[in-house]
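We store chain and fold; thus.
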Amino acid sequence: PTLTLNRPDDYKLDSVGKALPSVELRIADDGEIQAKGPNVFSGYFKDEGATAHAFTDDGWFRTGDLGTLDEDGFLRIIGRKKEIIVTAGGKNIPPANVEMLFQDDPLIEHLVVYGDGKKYLVAGIWPNLSNLRSVCDSELDDHKVHTLLQERVDQANAELARFESIKAFAVMDEPLTVEGELLTSSLKIRRKKIYDKFRDTFESLYGGRK
């Protein structure tokens, strides 16, 4: 059902709006958006198992989306629950929660977190080379690029729990494009395809580390 709307006189363009008057929203511990209200369906026809899976024990509908609610009640969708990374230590980490810390960084085009079943998270970083050159006011070399990006990663890690922090990263050369089917038409990452294409690079970041 429709859960939220941006009103003509009450809106934030980076959100999907506020809840309808009849709708209650909450964010679960794992970041999932959950809803309750008279417009939410009561269950699947003659399928008790699917119905039980779709709702929490206390009756909230599991949307499958991950999001945040700000202090004004505006909802933002940041990913899908099925994309949650479960570390070897059993920690559930929505990768979008980490990646969003870099979304406005002028030095980074894209950052993709990896680590399902691993002891810690790593990332692939697609840098904005033109902005990096502007910052350095000189030709870039690999060491300089890595140093600048490491500073950005360290800043983000300071805002994250230890199990969410990025322990290593690779600077990626091949761009993510719509034509290459690694981005959607709205320029969102295609996570599974990126993992499949660059898996060897991601896995190499765990070599020899404890």
